[in-house]
Design brief:
- Helix 2 (42-49) crosses helix 3.
- Strand 5 (181-186) and strand 6 (189-195) form a beta hairpin.
- The protein has two domains: 3-87, 434 Repressor (Amino-terminal Domain), CATH 1.10.260.40; 100-230, Umud Fragment, subunit A (Ribbon).
- It has 235 residues and is α+β, with helices and mostly antiparallel strands.
- The protein contains six helices and eight strands.
- The strands form two sheets. It has a six-stranded mixed sheet, with no helix packed on it.
- It has helices spanning 3-38, 42-49, 53-60, 68-78, 82-87, 132-139, and strands at residues 105-110, 126-131, 145-149, 164-169, 181-186, 189-195, 209-210, 222-230.
Length: 235
């Protein structure tokens, strides 16, 4: 290759690398800014999206861009348009709240998990009204949800026994998805833990991390519900 052409090619390569670096830095800035508006940390995004911690650290720190599969998970968690997240173009936030007078409300049943049996959660203690648009914006769904109080502490996520939470059922025989915070049931009663498909030896057990080996048919722990959110006030 001609020496002059080689030098020019190297300049272009460096220019492309600089542009990629700038794009990644801006990507990280938008993630941090939007997460801050929602009160979310990088650890929260790892839990919500199921993206690996190492990858999220790169996105959060503006060191790398992500593929389309992770981009949509991130944009959903941050409730922003994917294009805005990538290049800052277009509308940032999705789906604001409508006027309270025009809001549609949905009643979420509240259950007492002390009534939990092999056949179900028992009868609801009461029903609590929530704005449907608020649920859709915060949790990306407004159906199949119910309320309860946590049956145990989970210090890793600063969750305490008695905290009011919004949950949804995990159907019998179905496994939770990676990094879901769930309510499980064992012979000792219900408890809170995170589910991991590949948990490390020694981390399993109540109040820690649950993996496939802990669930039927090899284990005797059952996934009851996914915990979507903690409420700020006691029920």
């Amino acid at each position: 290759m001609d020496k002059a052409l080689a030098i020019e090619s190297n300049k272009l390569d460096h220019k492309d690398a600089d542009l990629d670096s700038q794009a990644a830095a801006s990507f990280g800035e938008r993630i941090r800014a939007r997460a801050g508006e929602l009160g979310l940390s990088a650890a929260d995004l790892v839990r919500i999206t199921g993206i690996k911690k190492q990858s999220m650290t790169g996105y959060w720190g503006g060191k790398r861009l992500c593929g389309s599969d992770k981009l949509f998970a991130l944009s959903d968690a941050l409730r922003v348009d994917a294009r805005w997240l990538v290049d800052g173009v277009g509308v940032q936030a999705r789906g604001g709240l409508i006027d309270a007078a025009d809001a549609d409300w949905v009643n979420l049943p509240r259950y007492d998990l002390r009534q939990l049996t092999d056949t179900g959660k028992g009868e609801p203690v009461e029903s609590v009204p929530f704005r449907r648009d608020w649920l859709s914006n915060k949790l990306l769904t407004s159906s199949g949800l119910w309320l309860t109080e946590l049956p145990s502490d989970y210090e890793a996520l600063d969750l305490s026994e008695g905290d009011a939470v919004i949950c949804s059922d995990i159907a019998a025989g179905m496994r939770p998805q990676e990094n879901w915070v769930c309510i499980f049931r064992s012979v000792g009663g219900p408890f809170v833990a995170v589910y991991r498909n590949r948990r490390l030896d020694g981390l399993g057990g109540e109040g820690a991390v649950i993996g496939p080996v802990d669930l039927p048919p090899t284990g005797e722990i059952y996934a009851i519900a996914r915990v979507h959110a903690r409420l700020l006030a006691k029920l």
